[in-house]
Design goal:
The protein contains ten helices and no strands. With 197 residues, the protein is mainly α. Helix 4 runs parallel beside helix 8. The longest helix is centred in the C-terminal third of the chain and has 27 residues.
Length: 197
């Protein structure tokens, strides 16, 4: 017998995968129930509406991304390396991104298109990334340019993910990663030069 909490977790995990692969609007209760292999009645015991599932999926994605950022904070000993971890995620997740796009960007875009009430909650994931990147740029010494630099990297990652999905071109992704890493080196060099002057 599977515990209720475990069944709920399985539903959220399945919904997370299906919302990513098919989109929120294209995924039905029946799709999620079939993926978890539970009856509709058991399903409704855990979630009454698809919006409740969406909120649980967004909570899961926020939690997962917080854990990822915390891991980078722990394992990378300087801000430049942490930003590089963020940049290289488009290569690490390249296969999925080329198939479905960015899991964060595709969901926020879809919810914005349908003006869904959970749109702002989904945007918290983008805000989480933006704030974390800004912290890294502040640590490097970018001062008032930290937010702009963070938004540049975040916008770059979304653009690369979109074009990777459109063109399925691994070489393009690798070239873009090299270019943004060179840009990052230039930002750091400029910051260090300003400190000397």
């Amino acid at each position: 017998m599977v515990a209720a909490g475990e069944t709920r977790r399985q539903i959220v995990d399945a919904a997370d995968s299906l919302f990513y692969a098919q989109g929120f609007t294209q995924t039905s209760f029946a799709d999620i129930a079939a993926a978890v292999k539970i009856s509709r009645g058991n399903f409704y015991y855990h979630f009454k509406t698809k919006d409740e599932i969406l909120d649980a999926v967004i909570d899961k994605r926020l939690s997962d991304r917080r854990e990822l950022l915390a891991k980078w904070n722990e394992t990378a000993d300087e801000a430049r390396k942490r930003i590089e971890c963020f940049i290289r995620i488009v290569i690490v997740n390249q296969t999925k991104i080329m198939a479905y796009g960015c899991p964060v960007g595709t969901l926020t875009t879809e919810l914005a298109k349908i003006d869904h009430p959970s749109r702002d909650k989904a945007n918290e994931i983008m805000a989480l990334f933006g704030d974390w990147l800004e912290t890294q740029f502040r640590e490097i010494g970018c001062g008032e340019n930290s937010r702009d630099n963070a938004m540049h990297v975040l916008g770059w990652s979304q653009g690369v993910a979109t074009l990777a999905q459109a063109f399925k071109d691994k070489a393009y992704v690798e070239r873009e990663v090299s270019k943004i890493l060179s840009w990052l080196d230039g930002v750091i060099a400029g910051t260090q030069q300003n400190k000397i002057q």
